[in-house]
Amino acid sequence: MRIVLAEYATGTCISSGILAEGRAILKTLAASFERTGHEVVYPSAGSLIGYGTSVESDEETFSRVIEREAKKSDFGLVIAPDHILPYFTSIVEDNTVNLGCTPESVQICADKLRCSQILEKNMISTPTLLSRPEGELCVTKPRYGCASENTRICSDFRSDDELIAMRYIEGEHVSASFIAGQDILPLSINLQFMKIGTGQGGGSIEYNGCITPYSTPLSDTLFSIASSVSSILGCRGYTGIDFVIGDRPYVVDVNPRPTTSLVGICQVMEEEIADLLLKNIDGELPETVNLTGKYSFTKEDIR
């Protein structure tokens, strides 16, 4: 079968911190699809990944390339920043079989304010949304954003349509990776490396890799929460949920797309991620996957 994998940073060559992570995710997916006997094509602004066939694109032509290649492909999958992911996902879904979340689900997950409000209403623990921190520590981040960009700890915040503030939760940063279908297939819990800096006006928070799998007595609880969140938000395909574990697990972000953790997961998982994504379309996922050993990486390792 022919698969189009559209990763935004690789396809547009934007000068951003997400380029290395996006390229690593794309390479991981393309390699798996090739190992399982499928033809892979991907938009590229010049960066080659060693697998599949690149199709020339840039920021201006990226959407047109996706549409053209999707029409010629059996399946498609998009990896892009959350605020533009719904648009590109809709192009794939209109022209081939989408292996990822629906545009409607992506739209909800991408809006961090709306997503948190929906989860709160459904009794899922999330850090409390704040209009004013009133002296307590809070975390501010873009309402639409990804890769922990412009995320800060501070105690002074002015309300802004583009930013949201949440109560700061001291705890362990982990993520749950799974495939959402008729139910969810747990893949792994990952311990996240977070760089917390200091500076005028507060400290930055930045994702810097992970260890996968991470053994915690809360694994079953985390995947149970993930299953509920997935059902509430209508997730489909590979999904990652970021948690902070304080007095209890708090859902911090829902990522309706392949995340950087997938790079590590595919180093220790016996099953092929490509095979699982395809089986999910027909509702034929296994009950479990087999993980052997551990894999650790930082953002520097995947540059």
Number of DSSP helical runs: 9
Low-confidence stretches: none
End-to-end C-alpha gap? 30 Å
The CATH topology of the largest domain comes to D-amino Acid Aminotransferase, Chain A, domain 1
| Helix proportion range | 25-40%
Count of β-strands: 15
What percent strand?
Answer: 25-35%
Question: How many domains?
Answer: 2
Shape: globular
Average of the residue pLDDT scores? 92
Rg calc = 18 Å
H/E series, N to C?
EHHEEHEHEHHEEEEEEEHEEHHE
User: What's the architecture of the largest domain in CATH terms?
Assistant: 2-Layer Sandwich
Largest sheet: 10 strands, antiparallel
What is the CATH superfamily classification of the largest domain?
ATP-grasp fold, B domain
Subunit organisation of the chains: single chain
Walk me through what this model shows.
This protein has 303 residues and is α+β, with helices and mostly antiparallel strands. The protein folds into 2 domains: 2-99, Rossmann fold (3-Layer(aba) Sandwich), CATH 3.40.50; 110-125 and 170-302, 2-Layer Sandwich (D-amino Acid Aminotransferase, Chain A, domain 1). The protein has 9 helices and 15 strands. The strands form 2 sheets. Strands 6, 7, 8, 9, 10, 11, 12, 13, 14 and 15 form a 10-stranded antiparallel sheet that branches. The two termini are 30 Å apart.
Question: What does this entry show, briefly?
Answer:
With about 300 residues, the protein is of the alpha+beta class. The protein contains nine helices and 15 strands. The protein folds into two domains: about 100 residues, 3-Layer(aba) Sandwich (Rossmann fold), CATH 3.40.50.11770; about 150 residues, ATP-grasp fold, B domain (D-amino Acid Aminotransferase, Chain A, domain 1).
